[in-house]
Design brief:
Layout lengths: L2 E5 L2 E5 L1 E7 L3 H9 L15 H11 L1 E7 L10 H21 L4 E3 L8 H15 L4 E4 L1 E2 L2 E2 L6 H9 L3 E5 L8 H6 L6 H15 L2 H4 L4 E4 L6 H17 L8 H5 L2 E4 L6 H7 L8 E2 L9 H17 L1 H4 L2 H12 L11
Parallel strand pairs: 3-4, 4-5, 6-9, 9-10, 10-11, 11-12
Antiparallel strand pairs: 1-2, 7-8
Length: 337
């Protein structure tokens, strides 16, 4: 599974590419604890350190991990404070990328819901720090992806042909009683992701900004179920003036989907009803589950792909090839070893 190459004197592992993982840094936790927000998402954030992450990658056969800031968004009605936290995060990730060449990429955090501040940070992160994209929350304290107020940010990201990794955050407002019974990750996260992407589709965001590439987490969440219903209802909504027409093909062609969540054969086949095999990517969700569970999930995914004649032909693409193309990566030339 692993391909080893000596590059610039460093032994760089070239294997699976993980597009869904998080690094949870001390100053980020301090910002949350200062505002009594460490449990905003309904569960404690796991510990993270680079050594443990690299060990997990080595044992799992992961060559490169794309880091993103977890939920919740570190915004507490103070843009300057949020800017400081996101700037420290992005610069820390840039150092990790430099210190461990080939092992880490990162998608920058942005200080939303302040759109002007987010634009400034996006420009700095992408143009100066060398970020590989940006991470956007499904909603930033109630500001949802697809909302008109985010259009100026989308324009800037579009100019840079940016990759956007979406991650669910607690819905705003949220049903406290239900969340107390069923953790966010079980239902609200997939629902929240679907809600945000549907909002983007309804405003044709990805057609109006066609050079964006958006990664939807957790096997597309509920989109394989939601889209047929949405398509069936849309003509009546358009006729009555409640919605505008949606360019389904144009929007969906710019969506990618990660496989965080240990997908079954049925889930994979369902996902292929709304996308093409070239737009499916591996994601672990490290460090939210124990290493042993995540490695078992990956082995189960590989076994699932191997067991199906059609899916087996897509396995290399799902596990690394599609991510390589999305992020403009290339494998070392064996002749140079």
């Amino acid at each position: 599974m692993m391909f080893l190459s000596c590059m610039a004197g460093n032994m760089v592992a070239q294997g699976i590419i993980d597009v869904h993982c998080h690094n949870i840094l001390p100053f980020y936790m301090e910002a949350l604890e200062k505002h009594d927000a460490a449990m905003d998402e309904g569960f404690p954030l796991p510990a993270w350190d680079v050594g443990a992450h690299l060990k997990f990658m080595e044992e799992a056969g992961i060559g490169c991990s794309v880091l993103t800031m977890p939920a919740p968004q570190p915004y507490f009605d103070d843009t300057e404070e949020c800017q400081q936290t996101t700037r420290r995060y992005n610069e820390h990730c840039a150092r990790l990328k430099a210190d461990y060449p080939g092992r880490f990429k990162f998608c920058a955090a942005l200080p939303l819901p302040d759109v002007d501040a987010a634009i400034r940070e996006a420009v700095y992160a992408l143009d100066t720090l060398g970020a590989d994209g940006v991470k956007l929350a499904t909603n930033s304290r109630g500001q949802y992806l697809g909302d008109e107020e985010l259009d100026p940010l989308m324009e800037v990201l579009n100019e840079r042909h940016a990759v956007i990794i979406i991650h669910p955050h607690r819905s705003t407002p949220y049903p406290e009683g239900i969340i107390a019974t069923t953790p966010l990750a079980m239902y609200e996260y997939p629902a929240e992701t679907t809600r945000a992407v549907v909002n983007m589709l309804a405003r044709n965001v990805l057609v109006r900004y066609p050079d964006l590439k958006v990664v939807v987490p957790h096997c597309g969440s509920f989109l394989p179920l939601a889209l047929p219903r949405m398509k069936s209802i849309l003509p009546a909504m358009v006729k009555q003036g409640y919605m505008q027409p949606i360019d389904w093909e144009g929007n969906l062609s710019r969506l990618y989907f990660d496989l965080a969540g240990s997908p079954t054969l049925e889930v994979l086949r369902s996902l292929l009803t709304i996308t093409t095999p070239e737009h499916i990517l591996y994601g672990s969700d490290y460090p939210y589950l124990p290493d042993a569970v995540l490695k078992s999930n990956l082995q189960r995914l590989q076994q699932t792909l191997d067991s199906d004649k059609e899916l087996a032909g897509y396995a290399d693409g799902f596990l690394w090839g599609n991510a390589e193309r999305l992020f403009g990566m290339s494998r070392p030339n064996p002749s140079s070893e």
